[in-house]
Design a protein that fits this description.
Length: 333
């Protein structure tokens, strides 16, 4: 890209990136409310549990955000989490060391992402249909691999590898869960990629105006393809983290996580029309989702009513995003 084109991209990205102040304020208000009204919320064991849950949500939300910023969507993330978690468990059962097992899960996720990218960029399917098909494909593969049964680890892996797996999923360093360190490092890396690299600027440009991006010489299909691979890899890491926490992977593992990721992205200020948002917003949004779920559970809200409440919240969040986007476009014009 030429220098003047890069300046245009930077201006467009700066205009589109929403302030993180709103989501952070919402998070603080929710946490203060639960801290005051729900005594179990402020217990140390609950904070640890909250952080472990949030870690998986954060990974999924960051994956969802990448493709949403680029103007797409991924409905297969939950199935990718389940499939890669099962793959990680199978590696551990074969006494493959922890790090190679995690890498294997991430690569499986990347392969799923590549499949999604192929369907979107080569086959020309709209992202909604392509990833909806992927959701069924990957969940079906999971059922085939597991024969419809939970993949247990404890009775098969060596004690050393099992202990490392458990520590990865639910261990802590200095009182902070290890998965929290993982998502912080990944969030910083992705933030750097989005803000400081040509690929990151291209994602924002494509999400804002794919036709203008193509006319500027950007290889739009290639950028989208890579974005889906990254999303799949993040789903793979989330699957490994979830499997480590459960020390197993049920066939419904990760079920619905794709919606949790989209939910968190919208709450974090990532616009559903693309071209706006960042990884910090995804992190904050995911923590908001984890806090809401944790608060509902602690207050004994029925699981069915939880779905109703969360559904209402996401509808309102998307409605707010739609109104805000229209106002921004009108102000720009």
């Amino acid at each position: 890209m030429k220098k003047n084109e890069l300046k245009n991209v930077n201006k467009l990205s700066a205009f589109k990136k929403s302030s993180i102040l709103g989501p952070i304020t919402i998070l603080i208000v929710i946490m203060l409310f639960l801290f005051i009204t729900t005594p179990p919320f402020r217990q140390a064991y609950n904070i640890t549990s909250l952080m472990l849950s949030a870690a998986v949500y954060v990974m999924v939300a960051m994956g969802a955000s990448i493709v949403i910023i680029g103007g797409g969507i991924d409905l297969s993330l939950g199935s990718i989490v389940g499939l890669t978690g099962a793959a990680c468990c199978l590696f551990i059962r074969m006494n493959v060391p922890l790090i190679p097992s995690i890498i294997g899960a991430v690569l499986v996720g990347g392969l799923c992402g590549a499949m999604n990218g192929f369907m979107v960029t080569v086959m020309g399917l709209i992202p909604f249909i392509a990833t909806l098909g992927g959701m069924w494909i990957y969940r079906g593969i999971l059922m085939i691999l597991t024969n419809g049964q939970t993949i247990a680890v404890r009775a098969y892996a060596s004690e050393e590898i099992l202990n490392s797996f458990v520590k990865f999923g639910s261990g802590s360093i200095l009182g902070i869960p290890i998965p929290a360190y993982v998502f912080i490092v990944v969030a910083l890396l992705l933030s750097f990629i989005l803000k400081k690299t040509v690929f990151g600027r291209n994602i924002y440009f494509i999400g804002s105006n794919p036709d203008a991006a193509a006319m500027s010489g950007i290889n739009v299909p290639k950028v989208k393809f890579i974005a889906y691979i990254i999303t799949g890899m993040l789903g793979g890491l989330a699957g490994a983290m979830l499997a480590g926490r459960l020390v197993s992977m049920p066939t419904n593992g990760g079920n619905g996580y794709e919606f949790e990721g989209i939910f968190a992205s919208v709450l974090g200020g990532i616009s559903m029309v693309g071209g706006e948002g960042g990884m910090l917003g995804a992190v904050v949004g995911a923590i908001i989702v984890a806090c809401i779920r944790n608060g509902l559970n602690l207050n004994g809200i029925d699981a069915f009513w939880q779905q109703v409440i969360l559904g209402i919240i996401i509808v309102m969040a998307v409605f707010y995003d739609t109104v805000r986007t229209k106002k921004a476009r009108n102000a720009k014009s």
